[in-house]
Write a structure and sequence with these properties.
Length: 273
């Protein structure tokens, strides 16, 4: 039986903890307050209070590092300008991992690491090794820091736009002007994200990098219009002028080749409740 620690019982981490427990794994996770800890314990999820500011703040941290596997779901917060803080958190975290019981680390990264500009070919896990500059340098630094000079097996999972319960794409553009609707999406449903993490652990897919993106890529406008019709969301005030040409599409073939099957392969058929 795998023992797994989840650093961060957030929107993804909490769903992951519940799923891994159902899969028969021994699970412990972290939150940043006693209040949140009490609520999580009511869900029968073993939880410790732990935070990196950027150093570790709680003595209870040793329980979090007594598992075989550590899943890192820390938000990079690069959009809010806190990328350097994120890197400092990882520096502290890596020191805690060294000398602990952790044998394997699964880091949740983002497809935001790829450039924003369209490309005729799809972005693959190897694209950044072929001379293409990263879209988010902080994410690349973070991945490389955790991968280099380590005492543990390491896999990085670059997730696309996470959608699912409470996260409906149309809500983010409701009433906004000049919304880009012609670009294709790179989404993944929360349920598939947690299943993919479990798959990597169960199949022992270590020392690799995977893209976690649904294999179908409809246009944004298709999804927004469907959300408007299904949930009564106010539509965007206007759409930007349609542009023909290539798209920015993230390739998910590598994880599919391991035998993983998406429950929600097409974002036009995502479930949100």
């Amino acid at each position: 039986m795998h023992s797994v620690s989840i650093l961060g019982y957030g929107w993804l981490g909490l769903a992951l903890g519940i799923h891994l427990k159902k899969e028969g794994m021994q699970v412990i996770g972290s939150t940043t307050s006693k209040e949140k800890q009490s609520k999580l314990m009511e869900l029968e999820l073993d939880t410790v209070v732990f935070s990196l500011t950027p150093q570790a703040q709680r003595e209870e941290k040793h329980r979090l590092f007594a598992s075989e596997v550590l899943v890192i779901t820390l938000p990079a917060l690069t959009r809010s300008g806190e990328g350097e803080f994120y890197l400092a958190q990882l520096q502290s975290l890596k020191k805690l991992i060294e000398g602990s019981s952790i044998e394997k680390v699964l880091m949740i990264s983002s497809t935001g690491i790829y450039p924003e500009h369209p490309m005729e070919e799809r972005y693959t896990e190897e694209s950044l090794q072929e001379g293409i500059s990263p879209g988010n340098p902080i994410l690349l630094q973070a991945e490389r820091f955790m991968e280099e000079e380590r005492t543990y097996a390491f896999t990085c999972l670059r997730l696309g736009g996470l959608m699912g319960p409470g996260r409906i794409p149309g809500n983010y553009v409701s009433g906004k002007p000049e919304v880009v609707g012609h670009a294709r999406v790179n989404y993944i449903h929360q349920f598939d994200a947690v299943r993919m993490i479990a798959w990597i652990i169960q199949k022992g897919l270590w020392d690799q990098t995977f893209n976690g993106v649904a294999p179908y890529h409809p246009r944004r406008k298709e999804i927004y219009e469907q959300n408007v019709a299904s949930f009564g969301i106010s539509p965007p005030r206007s759409y930007a002028q349609f542009q023909k040409g290539v798209d920015r599409v993230i390739d998910s073939r590598k994880i599919l080749e391991t035998g993983f099957q998406f429950a929600f392969p097409d974002p036009l058929h995502f479930e949100y409740y």
